Amino acid sequence: MIIQLQEDISDKQRESLLAEVINIGYKTTEVKTQLGDYIIGIGKKEFDIRKIGKKEGIKDIHIVSDEYKLVSKKWKAKPTSIDLGNGVFIKDGDMAIIAGPCSIESEDQIRKVIKHLKENDIKMMRGGVFKPRSSPYAFRGLGIDGLKLWYDLASEAGIKIVTEVMQVSQIEEMYPYTDIYQVGARNTQNFNLLDELGKVDKAVMIKRGISGTIEELLQSAEYVFSGGNEKLILCERGIRTYERASRNTLDLNAVPILKAKSHLPVIVDPSHGIGIRAYVPQMALAGVMAGADGIIYETHEIPEKAYSDGQQTLDFTQSALLADWIRKTFAMRKTFDLV
Amino acid sequence: MIIQLQEDISDKQRESLLAEVINIGYKTTEVKTQLGDYIIGIGKKEFDIRKIGKKEGIKDIHIVSDEYKLVSKKWKAKPTSIDLGNGVFIKDGDMAIIAGPCSIESEDQIRKVIKHLKENDIKMMRGGVFKPRSSPYAFRGLGIDGLKLWYDLASEAGIKIVTEVMQVSQIEEMYPYTDIYQVGARNTQNFNLLDELGKVDKAVMIKRGISGTIEELLQSAEYVFSGGNEKLILCERGIRTYERASRNTLDLNAVPILKAKSHLPVIVDPSHGIGIRAYVPQMALAGVMAGADGIIYETHEIPEKAYSDGQQTLDFTQSALLADWIRKTFAMRKTFDLV
Amino acid sequence: MIIQLQEDISDKQRESLLAEVINIGYKTTEVKTQLGDYIIGIGKKEFDIRKIGKKEGIKDIHIVSDEYKLVSKKWKAKPTSIDLGNGVFIKDGDMAIIAGPCSIESEDQIRKVIKHLKENDIKMMRGGVFKPRSSPYAFRGLGIDGLKLWYDLASEAGIKIVTEVMQVSQIEEMYPYTDIYQVGARNTQNFNLLDELGKVDKAVMIKRGISGTIEELLQSAEYVFSGGNEKLILCERGIRTYERASRNTLDLNAVPILKAKSHLPVIVDPSHGIGIRAYVPQMALAGVMAGADGIIYETHEIPEKAYSDGQQTLDFTQSALLADWIRKTFAMRKTFDLV
Amino acid sequence: MIIQLQEDISDKQRESLLAEVINIGYKTTEVKTQLGDYIIGIGKKEFDIRKIGKKEGIKDIHIVSDEYKLVSKKWKAKPTSIDLGNGVFIKDGDMAIIAGPCSIESEDQIRKVIKHLKENDIKMMRGGVFKPRSSPYAFRGLGIDGLKLWYDLASEAGIKIVTEVMQVSQIEEMYPYTDIYQVGARNTQNFNLLDELGKVDKAVMIKRGISGTIEELLQSAEYVFSGGNEKLILCERGIRTYERASRNTLDLNAVPILKAKSHLPVIVDPSHGIGIRAYVPQMALAGVMAGADGIIYETHEIPEKAYSDGQQTLDFTQSALLADWIRKTFAMRKTFDLV
To answer: Which UniProt keywords apply (chains A, B, C, D) (predicted)?
Structure first.
């Protein structure tokens, strides 16, 4: 059960409420986020919800039988809107476009990408400075200095940035220089990282695990939310299957299912989802029609020279076209009465 | 290698040609389809293609290194167009809509579906009369009598039908009463069935196997083509993965990949692909944007009362809306310069 | 529900019984096998089993809630023993060894394998004469003539043979020349083939599908049993997963699970299960310890020259060692008190 | 390429050597472990190995084309032996048995398990104090205090312990109280954690990822080794597939493949591998026959009352039997001439 507390609840009321829930035989977790205070009760016994509901200090109470609670649409039908400042949002009813290179490489590269984004009215940029690599001998990114440089140039241009955080110790050092922390597909179930991101007041985009289920993605989001941070974005980026003709299997089924189960915005990553440059646009547009609230894709001035993921990266001409097509497709989708 | 023969090739020229190919150390297969005669040469040794190419009786010669040959785009860049008669086509550059129930149930049901299709200008109807069921105790379809009844009503209304053939012995009895034979996902590698369908002059739609690869789907099509039948359609209908939130994982990546590898038209089945009625429209439209040449979906007057697959079947109101959205989405896609 | 009928049940008693079951609201299927007559009732309504149980003509009555019924251990706790004649059995409490080449190639090859089997007291031989191949241009086996030759030589030597049947039309022509029909992994859900094998009085070994579930394997066996043939053997041969370091993923978990769910014997195929010659012995012995009632593996005088599957085929020296190790491991397993 | 350095190499010799490798166009990584100093060269250009090989300060030089290098058998054919002190080893040619509860729960529980282990001559104990849980509301373990208590009791009894480390910050606090750090299946690609474990002089057991490949497991081990720690153990614990009848699909194919590719010892975890108590013994013995150097399984005085994983945990009677069977099976395996 989720109990939303009134802002002016007294300590005594709160204690009495906790006692009442424990009394049913439920385990309680107190959650305090940017937007409110909650008590989560976990248990299986049936109880009379009215008995708790009429107690003082309660704004609302909900039964949520899913394993995830706070990220469920069952208690919060209204979609969550992520406000990044300066009029930049990621939210249901809108189409966020996030583009940029796989890896941040140099000042020159950053400047060129930013110029490209500005020319195409794209307000969010992706890029990696800490790169998870399966081989210890591969390029691991420019690190925190690269991030500082990038953030300065981007914020000057009014561009919001999203970049991967790989471990707890990076959260704090990255904080002044990032708009959205990205949790990568290999860290979707790095529970300590999720716990710590719950303590931060910046948006977090969680990628679905390499072979993560939809349920696990929602539970990972629940970790961050229950840690205190409601600013969450979910990202479908392809899953591992037996098929070898594409890098991953982009599971667009996940988009309407996530939108139905959760109030959080859902982003699609066609670049990792298919891994082949020529087909990224089709899969991006398919993602829009599947119901995505945004698309994140890789672009680079000269993809063939990118430090990583060049084979799935669009050049600026392709990127400009895609941004236009995404917007047109989204405009059409809005005229359809889709659930 | 694929050698396309001239129509007026003499027996002597043909024999000389075969001898030449065998002489290189290649195994030959002679293929005669509705549209032409071919010699397929299988082998690994390098050879001088000009030596064969200048022989008499040859229209064209191509090196195709893929495991599949005749269905490859490497020798036939022009997309294959399936002409079903009466101005009904399945082809690249067009959008085929195929709708109908999972199972053919009764004359009344057939009439109602046909009326719905006519009202929405849908020219192809799907339906099962031989049903593959994992349990031997489940409903197995109305059989050949149901097919006759259905075919008569459909052809009277100018509607083309597609229905599953489950075994070799059914091919002949179904022949007068079907427009497109469907090979189901459990029979994609039923090689005897594919062989026999090669001998028939009617279109064949091959569904991707339950956990079939893209490569295997193309090889299954190669079976039918090399048996003598070029009228082939490929269908992506979802694959089996670890994810349990949807019936299957609709692999839309397969659409641009199949279109790039083969000259055959590609159809998407969102009904089986996600298995949840409310999300069938989104996935259908995603399929259109991914590059499909057609959409096949399930519709029934009262889905809750359907003999099978009701949970993924649209009612007629939803179906009418979806057909309209599919057409609008396809019209927009054509304005984009997608590969 | 499964109702076992008395051998001397009268037509009147049978009709009365059917009427009673239909009266509950259950669909009935009458099954007549080599060993008995059964009525299967399918439905969901609860009913008083005693009311049916006390009717005349009944030997026993069982509630079986699984999707599969007749192959379930819930009504038949006693393991099924497959008697192949001449003292050759496949059964729980015994260890069947089946060895032979992937493809039957020639009389000379057959004679050499038979000699090897005799020297090592191996009483069952595997081999393919109809080969399912993903490419239409690959070697498809010697066909029925190869089978006749092989069967004659094998039966003369007192060796029982198991070979794949690919389509309904082959069942009858193969009948005089086979001891065990094998249903291959691509045909596990070829329901027509399963239906027809139910009408035959010879043993059938069903391989698990390429990506078939344990449940589906049992349902495929149910098809044959409900068609009238109780002589069934299940075979685990590896499943398709994302892992590429082995040909398939041998799922030995399936062995104890199948043994617990069904009364049918379970065989393990380590050759296809891992696909790498050097590791076939380990996986065979692992299969024995997992609880298999038999091992089927590939052997050839000169594996490198085998027409197919050479990379996973043992030579005769390796095969002789393996047969010995299998027997020793099985003898030890019997001293353990495993479920 | 891997260059093993002589212990008495001079700084000048080292610099000259690095310069030579860089000169070929290779990227170099210097590795210093407990057992030696290495230079790893990564690149694709061909070069004359003799030219480097004859330089001073070199003990040996090897070309290793795999993505992983230091963990490969290609340069170190001799199996790695993990010496835990007091005569306890994990190594090829030996059979390590590691048993204990899923979670460490209380002093009483620890004492009972230790008593059981001592009675059965089991020298290693498993247990979790930091528990990765997919839901933030589940029991997360006793933490560092539980570890201290456990370690004291275990070391007093001469028992070595293995326990999961979930994040970098725990490495140091756990150090005095653990014998083997376990990297869990959700952290197999937590590269920062792997990096940091490279700096520690204690054994590390890396579990295969939830859907990790064999290749990825070896690369994760490469991270730790290249970070400076050679004391590595690999663990197969089941992978995620579509099959739902078992918790995971225990991939015993991985055992001989890992043993062939790497010099590191390989452990099998049948408890997580199948997830059903009744079948854990069979799968453990199958693991022994597949070639494992050890078995890790869950045991608890009263499995039904365990805080976690009770359904796959053996009671002490079952555990005692299993330990005996493992030893007998291993003794028999040693008499076979398996690769």
So the answer is: Transferase
